[in-house]
Specification:
Blueprint: E1 4-8, H1 12-20, E2 25-28, H2 34-43, E3 48-52, H3 54-59, E4 61-66, E5 71-76, H4 80-88
Parallel strand pairs: 1-2, 1-3
Antiparallel strand pairs: 3-4, 4-5
Length: 90
């Protein structure tokens, strides 16, 4: 099972941090519309989507979308893996 899909530009550091936390991660190109990307993430069984836009990248945060509960919140890059672990218990 796939833990997280990363959507966005320049997420190399985010990918490394999530993989270091033993999460299975796949990246989707942000060239398609967000609705299509989130649909693809759900279809392949990802629990979370990490969305990184230019603004988020500049501020060191990501949008963390829980695909199971259809909720989304902003978290610091450094806290993303912990936030997924906590949400995954629900």
């Amino acid at each position: 099972m796939l833990d997280v899909i990363v959507i966005g530009a320049g997420p190399a550091g985010v990918l490394a941090a999530l993989r270091a936390a033993d999460l299975s991660v796949e990246m989707l190109s942000p060239e398609r519309k967000m609705k299509a990307l989130l649909g693809r993430a759900s279809k392949i069984g990802a629990r979370f989507a990490v969305i990184i836009g230019d603004d988020e990248l500049a501020r060191g945060v990501v949008q963390l979308r829980d695909l199971k509960n259809s909720s989304q919140r902003e978290v610091a890059v450094a806290d993303a893996a912990a936030a997924m672990a906590t949400a995954g218990k629900n």
